[in-house]
Structure formats: structure tokens, C-alpha cells
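Why do we bother with holo predictions? Because pocket geometry can differ from the apo form. Keep that in mind while you read this record for fe (ii) ion.
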Amino acid sequence: MKDSNYARIEKQIDSFPSLPTTVTEVMNVVNNPESSAKDLTQAVLPDQSMCVAILKIANSALFGRPKKVSSLESAITVLGFDEIQNIVLSKSVLNSFGSVFQGNDQIINEFWDHSFTCALAARVIAEHFSISFPGRFFIGGLIHDIGKLAMLMTFSKEYTTEKWLSGFSQAEKLEEEKETFGINHAEVGGRLLKKWDFPDTLVNGLHYHHDPGNSPGSHGFPIIIQLADALSYITCTYDKDDIQSLETMILDLIPGIAETWNNHQLPWETLRLEMWHNWVSIEREHGSSILSILAY
Ligand SMILES: [Fe+2]
Ligand SMILES: [Fe+2]
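The structure, written out:
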């Protein structure tokens, strides 16, 4: 059973369509230090729905610009290359899950609320530590659990939504997932990003978001996604007034996280956790508008 399930998910990953050519072209432009805003405009321009999304995001409340942006080139100047790359990657990944994403199922809405909140949390933590390209943490958070959607597409009966899609994946649940399907959702997510030629930081960030200590590359990325995941779960599940000790809740979900942080030169402090949690709770309200821009 386990082996045949593994074969089914492998087949699903292999049969996922490639991402649109806009993605490759945008990545080439962004990663070439000689590129100008004009080059990036040329790369995005043929993709009309992407242009519309970029303009909407440049003008959205989350970016709070005093002046409206009306051309793609000025949107690129306002948002910057890194942010444009993030929008293009996020939108392309979300669109490739079209049918699953657009279901009005309550549990799918909750899944994306969790993912978006994780994206906000990952970015605010990265910004706090002045890590370069914090936008990459946003996309890492947004897509950290996409492996679950690929599992749902493959095992529409067995990967029952209540059991696997929601909640927080603690160690026992991950083991059970692997035992049942031959692979866990984090590994599936990493495999998908690898197939799509995403940068290694993101591939490893997804693959190791529940096991950051074993990541082969930089540990900082999966370590931050792991905490953002827990912060998102708590923010989306509990009322702020019902939380007595945020730190205790996080340590219950991820025993040993404080040691992992300290071992990787990231100071673990209760006050910071509360600050990030407060900020994420407020920003989450803008979530639905950005998500709908990225999804359609
Ligand atoms: Fe996960
Ligand atoms: Fe998650």
C-alpha cells in the first residue's frame, strides 16, 4: 500500500505541468546583474494576467503608496526586482493548483489563510533580522504546504481533508503521513519546486520546514519557515485574548525549537515572539485581497 501510494504521488509530481515561460524569463532577468527595469518589463509584458496582478499589488493597501501606479514599468520601480520575482513565482504556483485552489471548500479557504499568515510571519521575522531578500521568505511561507495540495490531488479519498490538510503537523503526524503515503507533504513540496527549477533556498526551505536541522544548505530559511508555520497556526486558531503564554504554545508544537534557534545564532526571545505575533494578527486582515490577486 505504502509503496503503491508512493508510486502514485511520484507520477503526480512528474505529470505536473511546467510553470509558464514568464517564470523562466523573469528569473533570468532578475538574476542577471546587468538587467534594467525595461528588461523586466519586456519579460512580464506578454503575460497579461501577470501584468494586472503586479499593478494591483503595487496599488494595494499592503504597500500603502500615496500615489497610484499606472504603468508596469513604474510598478517594477516601486516594488523592486525581488518583489516582482516573488509575485510571478507565487502567482504561477498558485495558478497551477487552479481547480483545488478555487474550490469554495471551507477547509481550502482555511488552508490558504494559514499559508498567507505564514508568509506574513516569515517575512516579518526575516526583516527583523535584516536578512536580505525578505520577500523570498514571504513566498516560502505562502507555498510551504503546497505538498499537501499535491497529496490531495493524488489521494482525493485517502488524504481526507480534516485529518491531513488542517492543523499543525507535529512529528507524530508527519511520521504517520510518511508511513501511510511513503512520503510526507514537506518532501512532496520540495520535489515539486525542484521540478520547477526554483532556487535551492526555496527547495530546501520547503523540504525541511518540519526538520530544519537536517537541511543541507542554509538552515536559516527552513528554521524561520518552521516558526512562521507555528505562529500562523496559533494566529489562525486562537483568539488573542485566549493565549496565556505564546512561548509555551510554540514549545508544545515544536519541542527543541529554542535550542535549534540558539544553535544557529538566532536569539530566541519571548518578547520578539509576541511582537511578531501581534504584527501578523493585524496584517492578516489584508490577506484575502492579496491572495485573490495572486490566485486569479
Ligand atoms: Fe507543513
Ligand atoms: Fe503549515
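Residues 106-128 form the longest helix (23 residues).
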